[in-house]
């Protein structure tokens, strides 16, 4: 952004629905690829996450800077459990995009939609490099917003023909099923299939739940399966069991972050093969044959928010999307 002397600072406000129509999932996957290449090559600055708590909740600050692309941003997330009593979101947030030349604010972007987009895009990127190209059947655990985003990303890189949706809420599972039936290729969708049968027939498995216990039995995972885990984000959460962790080639977004926050990796003293950025840059190998079982685990890191947020801002500027306020 070029700033003229004495010019009024303008901030572009981008709402949830505007996030979704500004940046496509396919474009977001490309942004993630570039971001994690920079991360792997040491071209990012990610300070320690800030945390402040009040009597009712916690607020997190996640800053990052991508040196090559010049993306500078801060993600702000608040978690207030009692909000449900007031019919308000328990988790809410925003991403602030800054000009790396001046430090001036450029844009405030709604955080939940951006988080779903960037996490889905990373899952899609991992599946692009780690799943078999002929993968057709996917089983999704968790029919929430993150499950939808993961499926959208997967459909953008693989020719999926069947989706099994498993969720404790029949209403949520059926609601997502009605959406997925309209995805590219009009896939077959099943919501009543037994878990073991679903796992045994899957080419790709996605876990997007808040479960503290494993959601499936690793003995039913067949050779060649790819698994993406996006749900667990604390040491006491384990979406995958010890068997699955033991038989998988494990790839993560960040070693440090995952070994502090990913319960299934911590509990099972998992051996991590690579970070996804190391595979993108050729430092480490990805899938090496059609029999390997691969497991990609992400807990999310701040470069995702800065990279996707900056891209959304640039496109919004070109297309005049969002509301501008003078600051």
Task: List its salient traits.
alpha/beta; globular; 8-stranded mixed β-sheet; 24% strand; 2 domains; Rossmann fold; 327 residues; ornithine cyclodeaminase, domain 1; 8-stranded parallel β-sheet; 16 strands
Question: Looking at the chains present, what oligomeric state does this protein adopt?
Answer: single chain
Radius of gyration: 20 Å
Please give the CATH class of the largest domain.
Alpha Beta
The chain-level structural class is alpha/beta
Indicate the overall shape. Answer: globular
Distance between the termini: 15 Å
Task: Please tell me the total number of domains.
Answer: 2
Q: Biggest sheet: strands, sense, closure? A: 8 strands, mixed
The helix-strand sequence is EHHEEEEEEHEHEHEHEEHEHHEHEHE
Task: Please give the number of β-strands.
Answer: 16
Helix percent reads 25-40%
Q: Unreliable runs, pLDDT <50, ≥5 residues?
A: none
User: In percent terms, what proportion of residues is strand?
Assistant: 15-25%
């Amino acid at each position: 952004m070029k700033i003229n002397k004495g010019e009024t600072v303008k901030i572009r406000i981008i709402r949830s629905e505007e996030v979704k129509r500004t940046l496509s999932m396919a474009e977001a996957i490309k942004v993630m690829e570039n971001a994690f290449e920079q991360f792997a090559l040491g071209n990012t600055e990610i300070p320690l996450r800030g945390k402040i708590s009040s009597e009712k909740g916690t607020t997190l600050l996640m800053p990052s800077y991508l040196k090559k692309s010049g993306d500078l941003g801060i993600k702000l997330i608040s978690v207030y459990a009692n909000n449900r009593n007031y019919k308000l979101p328990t988790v809410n947030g925003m991403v602030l995009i800054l000009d790396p030349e001046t430090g001036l604010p450029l844009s405030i972007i709604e955080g939940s939609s951006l988080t779903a987009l960037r996490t889905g895009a990373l899952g899609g990127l991992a599946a692009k490099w780690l799943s078999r190209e002929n993968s057709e059947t996917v089983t999704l655990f968790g029919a929430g917003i993150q499950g939808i985003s993961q499926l959208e990303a997967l459909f953008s890189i693989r020719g999926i023909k069947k989706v099994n949706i498993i969720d404790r809420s029949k209403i949520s599972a059926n609601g997502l099923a009605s959406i997925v039936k309209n995805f590219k290729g009009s896939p077959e969708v099943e919501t009543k299939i037994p878990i073991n049968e679903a796992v045994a027939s899957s080419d790709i498995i996605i876990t997007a739940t808040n479960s503290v216990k494993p959601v499936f039995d690793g003995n039913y995972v067949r050779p060649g399966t790819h698994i993406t885990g996006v749900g667990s984000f604390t040491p006491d959460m384990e979406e995958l069991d010890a068997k699955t962790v033991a038989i998988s080639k494990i790839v993560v977004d960040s070693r440090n972050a995952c070994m502090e926050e990913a319960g299934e990796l911590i509990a099972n003293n998992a051996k991590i093969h690579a970070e996804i950025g190391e595979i993108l840059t050729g430092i480490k190998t990805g899938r090496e044959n059609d029999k390997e079982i691969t497991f990609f685990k992400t807990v999310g890191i701040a470069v995702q928010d800065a990279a996707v947020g900056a891209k959304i801002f640039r496109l919004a500027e070109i297309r005049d999307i969002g509301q501008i306020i003078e600051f």
